[in-house]
Amino acid sequence: MSLFEATGLTVGVSGSPYPILRDVDFSVEPGEILALVGESGSGKTMAALAVMGLLPHGVTKTAGEVRIDGRNLARPDGSIDRQVGQISMIFQQPVGALNPTMRVGNQVARAIQINQELDRSAALEAAIEMIGYVGIPGPERVAKSYPHQLSGGMCQRIMIAMAVSCRPRLLIADEPTTALDVTVQAQIFELIKSLVAEIGCGVVFITHDLGAVVEMADRVAVMYGGQVMEELHADRLLDGSKHPYTRYLLESIVREVDHRVEDIGVDFTLRGCRFSHRCLLAHSRCNDFPTLEWIAHDHRLSCFAHPLDRS
Amino acid sequence: MSLLEVRELHKSFGRGADEIPAVRGVDLELAPGETLGLVGESGCGKTTLGRMIVGLSAPTSGQILFGGEDVAGRLHEPRYRSRVQMVFQHPQSSLNPRFRVSTTLSEPARLLASESAGASSSESIRETLRLVGLGEEYLSRRSGQLSGGQQQRVAIARALMSAPDLIVLDEPTSSLDQSIRSRIISLLKDIQKSNSVSYLFISHDLSTVRRIAHRVAVMYLGRIVEISETNQLFDDPKHPYTKALLSAVPTLDPKKDTERIILEGETPNPTQLPTGCSFQDRCSLVHEACRTQSPSLANLGSSRQVECFAVQ
Description:
The complex is a heterodimer of chains A (311) and B (312). By secondary structure, chain A is of the alpha/beta class. Chain A has eleven helices and twelve strands. Chain A is globular, with a radius of gyration of 20 Å. Chain B has 312 residues and is of the alpha/beta class. Chain B has eleven helices and twelve strands.
């Protein structure tokens, strides 16, 4: 049994017959970092929001289960019971995700008070300890600052302090360093890795940067058009990936691959594989929906074109 | 001869104790048909430098020589205006959403009419649109109806309309997906091959810069700390900051055994710079001279300059 499992997640816009997430499965083990990677519109953030029960208004989960230690967190009304599962999330824009009118120490203290019964001064003390714990020098002084007085990297550390203060089982990091410089990104990556080793939580790491995947993740799930296309060990991404879309993404880093890419975006109306209208290997079978199948003990693929696939 | 030469360029914002020196004495040259990559992190002054070269911001001191003539402070004049153009990071906010593509592309000629009358002919608009890979059917579209990549093509076409010698591109691909980024980079290279325009390509994305630039300048706190031929810079960086910056970029190959250099702390406050080298507090090679004297760019080989006592 995995620490965390999302199975058959299907999410749609109210009134539309075309799902924006289709039968999405992924799982995370304790201490493991799973990367969800894909381009704009691939559904990677939507998958995280569905897990958190934070889907935007008008977007609903129509099927799927979210389990921690085998226990389903999805309530019958479609919302998610976050308290029990202890899932935390950090967001892409650290400065924007913090309350600009509140000292950061108080914000961390509040996050602590949600999960622990502490009075205000004890929570603030715990908050200062957390701020030091995420590698910020002079935590007493920083706790009294407002977000705008801190750099983006510092604000992201504060967000991480809030997220790990409850000792979560699962941490979802949605492009945590996209808004930051590379040298700061390297610091934040180190921090997340050391926290995972220490707390033993699982991580869903959302990114569009394949380099960051190889750097950070143990396993990677590649998404396109609301589908998981391929899932494999992150070290094998470069030379072991099989899906035409994964290969396309890797190649596009070094050269221009497909001149039609701007004119044909993701087509959510496709019943079959959503990459089929751009895929060079597409054939008539691709008008059906390819499910994610094991092709090796640590490798899953959703593609009819693959020779090992389906006898 | 150089197309562009920048000498001892300074720009400060604010006054007195709050004065922020954004660009602190930059020298660089750009040849016709050449692409110079300008890289560095937030707040290093790369955008301010680009804006001064386009004339959107007046230097505090220093010279901007264009074809040998000092144009600092005069770049708003139409005859210079048409020779240097700019492409911005976010095409959706740098294009007027109410304009059709045809209007967007005829604006430069209308505004610069005194110098390039007649350039607004619909034939030249169609030709430029073709050059950026868009068909005539796009002329009647509004920018809001275009994808991000198509919008950036229109922004590039607008910059090309006045037949400039130099285009300053400020993070032109940062808001685009990887696959579209690759398309735009190929496009920019093709355009350069066909009309030998020069580019100043400002970006924090080192892998994109590597693909397009002939030479790369690395900025830190308002100074160029290393400037070199592109492959030489990426294969063998010399300045300790360049090394740290390059090592911080995640690579795809898990077997690549480069050692990650994690810089301690953050970029110092530009209002309270230390005496001597501004990188001293984060540098692994720091020694006594770095705390008392300021280094300046010195030649290291024929195609590289570095501003560091430890490697000079």
